Every structure is written in structure tokens, then in C-alpha cells.
């Protein structure tokens, strides 16, 4: 997530079409891998009896945040390109830093 936020920040410096395509490919690759690993971490953080409900709760919040994010991004894109890029970058880096505080459950049996 931190690398995804950093690559999102560098979208601001895109000057040519080929550079923007490269930066968007880098950003999409990093963000897709970050979201897939986040899906694995969230399910492994819950005990087995609560895993389905916990994963469903996290996915419901993600869907709500996606709708709100699209609405906010759409309203900010008309102002300037700096505001949405900096906001998305800071949220991704902040989420990555918060993710570092997740518990390490590799040695624990979650039942």
C-alpha cells in the first residue's frame, strides 16, 4: 500500500502520454497486489468461527468506501488534478502505515 501510494503521487509529474501509461501500469500493478494481500491478511486475522462475518463486514465497508470515493473524486477532479492525486496518495500511504500495526498471527492457531 505504501508503494502504491508513492506511485500514485508520481502520477502528478506525468508529462507525456507514454510516461503516464507506464506510471498507471505501475500504480495498478502495485495496488492490485496490495489489495489481494490485504484480502488474505483480513481473513487470516479473524478466528475461524468469525472469519466469514469479518470478511463480509470488511468487504461491505470497502464497497461503501468505493462508492464514496468515486463521488468525492468526481467532485474534486474539476478543481485541479493535484487535490485528488495527493488525497489518494496520502490515504494509500496512511493505510499502508496502519497495516503495519496488524498482529502477526503466523505462529498462532486461530480457532
TrEMBL record:
The keyword Transport applies. It is found in: Membrane. PANTHER family: SYNAPTIC VESICLE GLYCOPROTEIN 2, SYNAPTIC VESICLE GLYCOPROTEIN 2C. This is Synaptic vesicle glycoprotein 2C. Its main location: membrane. PROSITE patterns: MFS (PS50850). The chain crosses the membrane at residues 20-41, 53-76, 82-102. Keywords: Membrane, Transmembrane, Transmembrane helix, Transport. InterPro entries: MFS_dom, MFS_trans_sf. The keyword rRNA-binding does not apply. It is a multi-pass membrane protein. It comes from Ataeniobius toweri. Residues 1-106 form the Major facilitator superfamily (MFS) profile domain.
